[in-house]
């Protein structure tokens, strides 16, 4: 008889694992338990859907519906929450959220793909406080839409990428937007120069910025900051971070790593026999430092889900780790990073040097050409490229992807110059920004 594979969570990692296991083993008995109504959707697309629901309707965010999974012979149960894992007996206890019925199912192999959840705002709120919303799930987006009626002013708490994407979305909806960040600048993990460019872009589009300020109270239609400023608002969007959903796993004896997410092997196994984990609930190995990092990103979740699916279906696959490559857009500006920054590289015992390079994104005489700014980190001893941040209005995505491939391939700054890249004036200057950066740091 074929193995019974049970998967908890059905958005990115869980859905990918189920589809992969089905392809690899057509006979596998696969059950997916998902507490939300929706499965296999793009959380990453939520800000774009909210900004332009006619152009990107809700349905277009869903990659595969429950019915598609069922047509593939996957037993997809939505609104079913796993409340307990008994690893000794290999059973899960499930709550059917429609009927409140509790029942159990057995497994041969179990995948925990419970993802992450938005951090809750702990600020004191009076009865007259403005409504607080968050954006993690498709249901959150639906709720946000219903709350938007009559809203003219929105305060966003958090200057990370979700807060910034939502600032743009809210401006596109015609709202007055203020953004509060408790760190001295937005996107504090990026280079200060990059953060300042983002702040300038936000201001250019009319977003009121409050950095270095903490919210202490929500009261009478106002957000109250610790510096005494009161910002009138109709609604508050809390985008103050996420944390891994690990309670179900830890109660079953699954170990967490030093980041607070589930510790897994490259094969996505946990310390508990027959129990795998993947996606935002697990930590990854950083390829450059060999240290655990938590990278709650959609592409990582998908790739980990694929590895788990292959292995659960009896195949052999490994997840090689991450470089921390990420990109987001705020109005005209694209912001991206890969690898290590200066401080991270020093902490990992490299001997890093960092240079800022400004280059046209295409031949200067091409109308679409914009300035592309790169912050490249290289190890002085080996010459190896360790990291890059890129910011600009053009060619950021391709530049960061080349840099990520270069770091992955252990290339040096000299190698960057030697890369045989495509050139024609509408696409690039004769020396691409990547090559120019390699020349500067060689
Ligand atoms: P999740 O998407 O969190 O899914 C886990 C699912 O498991 C959830 O539906 C949860 O309800 C369910 N679950 C949890 N516990 C149980 C239980 N006990 N029983 C049953 N079901 C359970 N990443 C990028 O790489 N690029 C981007 O541009 C990007 N933009 C984003 C924008 C927004 C607004 C958000 C919210 C996220 C964005 N991300 C982006 C992150 C990306 O969406 C996540 O990394 C990805 O969704 C993680 O997938 P996952 O399957 O691990 O977890």
What descriptors fit this protein?
28% strand, 5-stranded parallel β-sheet, binds flavin-adenine dinucleotide, 12 helices, single chain, 442 residues, alpha/beta
Helical percent range?
25-40%
Please summarize the sheet with the most strands. Answer: 5 strands, parallel
Strand residue percentage? 25-35%
Number of strands: 26
Number of helices: 12
What is bound: which ligands? flavin-adenine dinucleotide
Termini separation comes to 60 Å
Instruction: Report strand order across the widest sheet.
Output: 3-2-1-7-19
Coarse morphology: globular
How would you sum up this structure, described in words?
It is a single chain. With 442 residues, this protein is an alpha/beta fold. 26% of the residues lie in helices and 28% in strands. It has 12 helices and 26 strands. The strands form 7 sheets. It has a 5-stranded parallel sheet. Strands 10-17-11-12-13 form a 5-stranded parallel sheet, covered by helices on one side. The structure holds flavin-adenine dinucleotide. Flavin-adenine dinucleotide is lined by residues 8-9, 11-14, 33-36, 43-44, 46-47, 81-82, 113-116, 135-136, 162, 245, 248, 279-280, 296-299, 301, 328.
Produce the secondary structure layout.
Elements: E1 4-8, H1 13-24, E2 29-34, H2 46-51, H3 66-71, E3 74-78, E4 80-86, E5 91-96, E6 102-106, E7 109-112, E8 116-118, E9 124-125, E10 132-134, H4 138-147, E11 153-157, H5 161-172, E12 176-181, H6 192-204, E13 208-211, E14 215-219, E15 222-225, E16 230-232, E17 235-238, E18 242-244, H7 247-251, E19 275-277, E20 284-285, E21 292-293, H8 298-312, E22 326-330, E23 333-339, H9 342-347, E24 352-360, E25 371-379, E26 385-392, H10 396-408, H11 413-418, H12 433-441
Parallel strand pairs: 1-2, 1-7, 2-3, 7-19, 9-14, 10-17, 11-12, 11-17, 12-13
Antiparallel strand pairs: 4-5, 5-6, 8-18, 14-15, 15-16, 20-21, 22-23, 23-26, 24-25, 25-26
Helix pairs in contact: 1-8
Bound molecules: flavin-adenine dinucleotide (FAD).
The site of flavin-adenine dinucleotide (FAD) has 33 residues, from helix 1, strand 2, helix 2, strand 4 and helix 8.
């Amino acid at each position: 008889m074929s193995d019974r594979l049970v998967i908890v969570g059905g958005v990115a990692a869980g859905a990918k694992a189920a589809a992969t296991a089905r392809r690899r083993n057509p006979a596998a008995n696969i059950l997916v338990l998902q507490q939300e109504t929706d499965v296999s959707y793009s959380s990453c697309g939520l800000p774009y859907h909210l900004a332009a629901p006619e152009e990107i309707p809700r349905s277009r965010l869903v990659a595969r519906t429950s019915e598609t999974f069922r047509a593939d012979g996957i037993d997809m149960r939505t609104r079913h929450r796993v409340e307990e894992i008994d690893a000794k007996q290999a059973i899960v206890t499930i709550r059917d959220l429609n009927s409140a019925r509790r029942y159990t199912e057995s497994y041969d192999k179990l995948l925990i793909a419970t993802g992450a959840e938005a951090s809750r705002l702990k600020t004191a709120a009076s009865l007259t406080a403005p409504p607080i919303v968050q954006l993690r799930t498709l249901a959150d987006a639906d709720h946000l839409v219903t709350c938007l009626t009559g809203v003219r002013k929105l305060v966003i708490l958090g200057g990370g990428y979700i807060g910034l994407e939502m600032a743009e979305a809210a401006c596109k909806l015609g709202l007055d937007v203020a953004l509060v960040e408790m760190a001295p600048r937005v996107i504090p993990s990026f280079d200060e120069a990059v953060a300042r460019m983002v702040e300038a872009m936000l201001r250019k589009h009319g977003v009121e910025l409050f950095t270095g300020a903490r919210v202490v109270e929500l009261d009478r239609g106002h957000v109250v900051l610790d510096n005494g400023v009161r910002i009138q608002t109709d609604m508050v969007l809390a985008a103050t971070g996420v944390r891994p959903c690990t309670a179900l796993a830890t109660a079953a004896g699954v170990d967490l790593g030093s980041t607070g997410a589930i510790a897994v092997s490259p094969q996505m196994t946990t310390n508990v026999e027959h129990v795998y984990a993947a996606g935002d609930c697990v930590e990854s190995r950083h390829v450059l430092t060999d240290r655990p990092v938590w990278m709650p990103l959609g592409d990582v979740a998908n790739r980990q889900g694929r590895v788990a699916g292959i292995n659960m279906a009896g195949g052999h696959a490994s997840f090689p780790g991450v470089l921390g490559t990420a990109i987001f857009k705020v109005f005209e500006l694209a912001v991206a990073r890969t690898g290590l920054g200066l401080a991270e590289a020093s902490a990992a015992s490299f001997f890093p040097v960092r240079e800022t390079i400004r280059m046209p994104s295409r031949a200067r005489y091409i109308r679409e050409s914009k300035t592309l700014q790169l912050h490249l980190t290289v190890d002085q001893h080996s010459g190896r490229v360790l990291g890059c941040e890129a910011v600009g209005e053009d060619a950021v995505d391709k530049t960061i992807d080349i840099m990520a491939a270069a770091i992955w391939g252990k290339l040096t700054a000299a190698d960057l110059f030697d890369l045989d890249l495509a050139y024609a004036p509408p696409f690039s200057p004769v020396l691409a920004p990547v090559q120019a950066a390699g020349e500067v740091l060689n």
